[in-house]
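chain below, 374 aa
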Amino acid sequence: MAAIGFATGFLVFGVLYSFGIFLEPLIAGFGASRSEISALYAISGSAFYLAGPVGGSLGDKHGPRFTVTLAALLMVGGLAATACLSSVWPAYITYGLAMGAGAGCAYISTFAILGSWFERSRTRALSIAAAGTGCGMLVIPPAVAFLVGSVGWRGAMLALALVSAAVLGPCVVLVRTPPKPPADRSTPLGEALTSRSFLLMYASWVFGTMALLVAIVFLPAFAINEGTDPVTASWLVSILGGASIFGRLGIGHVKTPGGTILLYKIAVLLMAVSYVIWLLHPSYAWLVVFAAVLGLAYGIRIALVAPVMIVLFGPARLGVLLGSFFTASGIAGFAGPMIASGVMDITGLQTTAVLSALVMGTIGFVLIVPLKAR
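prediction:
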């Protein structure tokens, strides 16, 4: 089951993060404006996060095989249909809504079931599954870039549809409904979603992810403005992504007397502190250190979300809990870069974007300080 979670995360995030490779070819191929094509990513991202609660609820009710089958039909069909279009407007449905929703259903339903399948090695299993997202972000976009240069964007889009079918097809066959946990071990769903602990984690995730996205969006441009060449500057995001894989995998082998919640707090604190490195040491060597520290802490944080949820609320209805929780990433994706850009426009200083990330990250940590196990 951990391998299924890894494969699904690998595919979903690899496809989603390949959109930048398609941007210019889609503008030329559809004869559309940059804003019209960029809207495809905005719609698919929104559909991904909004589909999370729906996919989680369907998986909890009908089992993961139903949800993964639906996800496969949406992803494969959406990608294949987009490759055959001549106008951007239908792509808002095929790529934006269908592919995005399919990706959200696939990821949440296969990730959430691990909480119930594993008891003693739960954190390790979830960390393996979470590592798939980082690996997909590293592997699939370069492969798509090669395909776009070799067979054009339509051929590359069809190739992604075939890869999606090749990955999700076996997942449909192999995925299994986990054993039901005892009813008294889990907090009722409505009570969990409205609890102080869930709301604090949700708000913390919004602020922490806003800070993270400031780094992902602005770090290469910051390095270029400091005199780094564009190719070398682009490696900073790859370093961040690579370090996150080590964080996701390594946390499964770490034990602490304070337990899972303490590790989660340490990861969020480390993310916040890392922005001090960026703020005080703008040389490229220190930016590499910053990207590595932030990526490591980010990987640990994402790998521990499900274990923390289980500690706080129990393993029942984990799919809809995680689906609802990850809508926080959608809010952060919209707000974080916009806030940082606005601050830079007002002050004219790129360091103010770094300072805004430090403030956001610090708020994200402060919000989870009161968290404790049931």
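The domain at 2-174 is CATH 1.20.1250.20 (Growth Hormone; Chain: A;). The mean pLDDT is 81.
thats it, cya
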